């Protein structure tokens, strides 16, 4: 096994390099393309960031796989997979909204062991090592102590294609809104989960995310004392298509009850 210190150094180096590219191009005239869904954007900056991240990973670990949103490089035989979202919050980025980040996680034999989510515009670097706690710019993170859903601030996101109510995503939102709860939609799943880890939110749910959106945030939240399951409260994998993440208090089971309503 590669030593964790080296993996961590490379992870930080790759995140710093991507964040520098994001800052360099923010609010400039970069190219914007559309993916299969009309509102699913990809910019030349997403591609530049991912290429730089892969270059840094492969300089240090030529044999490691990279699962990246913009293509990655998964042709190796390795127990290591780097799970990379070069820009999470691309729609924000393309519209000059400063809520975006780079998200990088390291998976070893199917388990996420390291994660970083770096939001350069707010100068916030969230990171965690399995069993070593979660941090925001060197300060240890802990989820909030709010116990009940009625006192909670929630956050969610919508998948591209939400207009067709994919996996009841609109119904879930309506069911939470009907409870009269405050709900935010930042446009970056990785930051949604990190804000939860920092005690800013109590609960987050979303359908149809990909591993690159959640892998780093997942570890950061667990290491901050939070809880992540599927919508039924069962075991969660970063490859699952439903995520319920909370501070682990009573709010978790209360949110499961609300999510159940759409499937009755
Ligand atoms: C998106 C963001 C957004 C979520 C979308 C994701 P992208 O990632 O995380 O918050 O609602 O489902 O696809 O496209 O900005 O990397
Ligand atoms: Ca993403
Ligand atoms: Ca992305």
Give a brief description:
The chain has two domains: 4-140, Fructose-1,6-Bisphosphatase, subunit A, domain 1 (Fructose-1,6-Bisphosphatase, Chain A, domain 1); 149-263, D-Maltodextrin-Binding Protein, domain 2. Helix content is 32%, strand content 25%. It has helices at residues 4-25, 44-60, 90-94, 169-177, 189-197, 211-223, 251-260; strands at 32-34, 41-43, 65-68, 80-88, 101-108, 111-119, 124-129, 134-136, 139-140, 154-156, 183-184, 203-207, 227-229, 242-246.
Account of the protein in words:
By secondary structure, the protein is an alpha+beta fold. It folds into 2 domains: 137 residues, Fructose-1,6-Bisphosphatase, subunit A, domain 1 (Fructose-1,6-Bisphosphatase, Chain A, domain 1, 2-Layer Sandwich), CATH 3.30.540.10; 115 residues, D-Maltodextrin-Binding Protein, domain 2 (3-Layer(aba) Sandwich), CATH 3.40.190. The protein has 7 helices and 14 strands. Strands 3-4-5-6-7-8-9 form a 7-stranded mixed sheet, sandwiched between helices. A 5-stranded mixed sheet has the order 11-10-12-14-13, with helices on both faces. A two-stranded antiparallel ribbon has the order 1-2. α1 runs antiparallel to α2 and α5 packs parallel to α6. The longest helix has 22 residues. The site of D-MYO-inositol-1-phosphate (IPD) has 14 residues, from β4 and α3.
